[in-house]
UniProtKB/TrEMBL annotation:
Residues 1-31 are annotated as: Disordered. PANTHER family: DNA DAMAGE-INDUCIBLE PROTEIN 1-LIKE, RETROTRANSPOSON GAG DOMAIN-CONTAINING PROTEIN. This is Retrotransposon gag domain-containing protein. Residues 116-212 form the Retrotransposon gag domain. It comes from the Eukaryota. It comes from Sesamum radiatum. Pfam families: Retrotrans_gag (PF03732). InterPro entries: Retrotrans_gag_dom.
Amino acid sequence: MASQGARADPVVGREESGESAEGLVAPASAGGVDIGREGVGVDAPNPPGGAPATHVPIPAPAPAVAIIDRNYERIRRMGATEFEGTLDPEIAERWWEKVKDVLNLVDCTLENRLKYVASLFVGNALIWWRSMKRAYEPKEITWAEFQREFDDKYRPKMYRDKKRMEFLNLVQGDNQTVAEYELRFAALAKYAPEAVVTPEDRCYHFEQGLRPEIKKGLAVRITNFKTLVESAVRMEEAVIEEKKKGKKRES
């Protein structure tokens, strides 16, 4: 039984009790293990005829190599920037959308996604992240929980509700092209997902917001969004051409 002051020897997996390592090494013998100053080796058995044994060295184990996750560097090269926090939801949203676009190009687990995003936090954002993590202890925060916490902190409900109403009331401006209207429509639709559940819903809301002279030219109800946008663009061009002809007749 080892003495009370014994400790585990991490090298050879035994316990030391104050006795020197040399006193615990078994003497070398034919076919045994020889531990000496030059490392570890094995004495080959004597061949027939009594020839001297040959010392065969055993290679030392390769040193442990740290596995480096290159994705931390990769996401930065792809455009993900550090985030120090902001009071402007628009700025936070642009940063968040860019980071998500980058992460979608990286093959990784949701757990690693969270680590990569956290590595981008600095300043006040890093303080918030550490505080939020402590609030979840001893449980590890999930990716879904993190997204909800980020929204509540940097894209609060009041802001999201405002954007939702902006989408529901969106119309094409007098000096706005169909292409410009479509871009704004796409940017705001995410705030009212319940209004664009199906392709038909999406087309309905888009068509309702078109200027009257364009909307009335769409003879049939179109339920494919791409087709609807293309039809609206053609109708817009026809309206513009008709206005040009009218001005020529007046002059």
